[in-house]
Design a protein that fits this description.
35% of the residues lie in helices and 20% in strands. By secondary structure, it is α/β, with parallel strands linked by helices. The chain has one domain: 3-Layer(aba) Sandwich (Rossmann fold). It binds adenosine-5'-diphosphate and magnesium ion.
């Protein structure tokens, strides 16, 4: 059975996809068969008559084996809004059990499955459930991506606390430098390290464009499948 990781973050647009791709490369360079999953994507384009999401396409392209798009991204919605609203607009409801089934199929095809969440930790998926419920039901170790920018200490502390309150296992967090020059970057990282027992797995420096070798610079201290 494969080892999975659930990648969440402090917000949308803070480096979850970037981190998921780097994690996939990290395990691939260890010789593992890795697949990516983006269970819910709001904000999709029609490609050849099918809804396709940029994150999911990137995860599909990075996967070690050919996987059908529908397995990687079972819920794809056109509108780039909160998933529960995007689903409702299409007359659909996100069912976590369907995501679990797709995950089990992926798990059978790989050594490692990297699951990218949607938005932040408590983004609603339907009227009753949010991303935290999905993570809880998939029961995977969690990796929190902290987008390093003003406000991130508050967002990160809220996210860490919410994960701890549910008693879920967090493997650690990634400092994701999405701004070219963040004031007091190191002091922000040190503040978060002091706040939480969750280990800092890596700091991803700001790069003008994704360097496909950048994962090699990363020292992930504790992460082992
Ligand atoms: N280390 C980095 N350096 C520079 N730009 C980054 C970095 N990480 C992410 N980005 C950029 O920030 C934006 C959001 O990143 P992304 O991984 O798509 O976030 P999310 O998946 O959380 O929405 C993208 O345009 C991405 O290219
Ligand atoms: Mg993303």
């Amino acid at each position: 059975m494969a080892q999975g990781y659930f990648v969440t973050g402090t917000d949308t647009g803070i480096g979850k996809t970037w981190t998921s791709l780097a994690l996939m490369q990290y395990f691939q360079q260890q010789g593992k068969k890795v697949v990516g999953m983006k269970p819910v994507a709001a904000g999709c384009e029609m490609v050849g008559g099918q809804l396709r999401n940029e994150d999911a396409l990137q995860l599909q392209a990075q996967s070690s084996v050919d996987i059908s798009y529908e397995l990687i991204n079972p819920y794809a919605f056109p509108l780039p809004v909160s998933p529960h609203i995007a689903a409702r607009k299409e007359g659909k409801k996100i069912d976590i059990a369907n995501i679990q089934q797709a995950y089990l199929k992926l798990e059978a095809l790989a050594d490692v499955v990297i699951v990218e969440g949607v938005g932040g930790w408590m983004v609603p998926l339907n009227e009753k459930e949010d991303v935290s419920h999905l993570a809880e039901q998939l029961n995977l170790p969690i990796i929190v991506v902290v987008g390093m920018r003003l406000g991130c200490i508050n967002q990160a502390k809220l996210t860490f606390s919410a994960i701890e309150r549910l008693g879920l296992h967090c493997e650690g967090w990634i400092a994701s430098c999405v701004e070219r020059n963040m004031d007091e970057l190191d002091a922000n990282i040190k503040t978060l390290e002091a706040f939480s027992d969750m280990p800092l797995l890596a700091t991803f420096p700001y790069e003008e464009e994704r360097n496909h070798k950048s994962y090699k610079k990363i020292v992930i201290k504790t992460l082992q499948p």
